[in-house]
Specification:
It is a single chain. By secondary structure, this protein is an alpha+beta fold. It is built from two helices and twelve strands, in the order αββββββββββββα. The strands form three sheets. Strands 6-7-4-10-11 form a five-stranded antiparallel β-sheet, with no helix packed on it. Strands 1-3-8-5 form a four-stranded antiparallel β-sheet, with no helix packed on it. A three-stranded mixed β-sheet has the order 2-12-9, with no helix packed on it. The radius of gyration is 24 Å and the shape is globular. The relative contact order is 0.21. About 18% of the residues have low confidence.
Length: 238
């Protein structure tokens, strides 16, 4: 009876430790914008980072919708070997003033399609780079809804918008945060901000990794202690 009780206790601890570990490991496999922030009113280059989540299928297409409620006059893709980029434009309800010219249509969607023999295989990721501008000055973020298509026909819809005070949705849309520009600070401020923006994702990733490894250590310690107690009780029983 004592041995059965010990085994049940160890089993309970293992299950609890597994649940703790699962809740501590962040979800890294989202389609995202890198870097995640830029200055209002300026021009920026971003990359849509696309991890392949499937263990058996490969990504062969990415579709990214640009918000027409905050259109941008200049949208350009960087060539990516093995992929063909197509830009779709839509008419604007209100013309956009760009360098003294009235723009009546803007890019509303970018589609990258893999050429024959190209794919994002399981365990891999790719970055699709775009130049954007001028960024709007009347919003603090741009949301880019994205569709990820696999070669088995599956489509993952990264279109859910996060809401303040609520958990992150299962399939969040990529978001580019926009900070107000400080004209008085000049070029030095701009360069410093860019450096901080580039360093922030790395620091955040490092911090998340450290926390995850710490939790893993705790879990391993709990399981080891439980097994040790079980061994001592078995020896005492014998």
């Amino acid at each position: 009876m004592r041995s059965l009780s010990v085994r049940r206790s160890v089993g309970t601890l293992v299950v609890a430790a597994g649940a703790l570990l699962a809740s501590a490991v962040p979800a890294f496999a989202h389609v995202s914008v890198q870097p995640g922030s830029a200055q209002q009113g300026g021009y920026t280059a971003v990359a849509f980072r696309v991890p392949n989540e499937s263990d058996t299928a490969s990504t062969v297409k990415l579709e990214v919708s640009l918000p027409l409620d905050h259109p941008m006059a200049s949208v350009r893709t960087q060539p990516l070997p093995g992929w063909t980029a197509t830009l779709e434009k839509s008419k604007l309800d209100k013309p956009l003033d760009a360098h003294g010219q009235q723009i009546t249509e803007a890019v509303s969607k970018i589609t990258w399609t893999a050429d024959a023999g190209t794919r994002i295989a399981p365990g891999q990721f790719e970055e699709f780079k775009v130049s954007l501008g001028a960024l709007p000055t009347d919003t603090d973020k741009l949301t880019f809804k994205a569709l990820q298509t696999y070669d088995n026909g599956d489509v993952v819809r990264w279109i859910e918008e996060s809401k303040d005070g609520q958990p992150e949705p299962a399939k969040p849309a990529p978001v580019l945060s926009l900070a107000k520009a400080d004209a008085a600070a000049g070029d030095h401020h701009s360069a410093d901000t860019t450096a901080k923006q580039e360093a922030a994702p790395a620091a955040k990733s490092s911090d998340s990794t450290a926390r995850t490894l710490g939790v893993v250590g705790i879990v391993v310690g709990v399981i080891g202690a439980a097994l040790g107690v079980a061994g001592l009780r078995r020896r005492s029983a014998n």
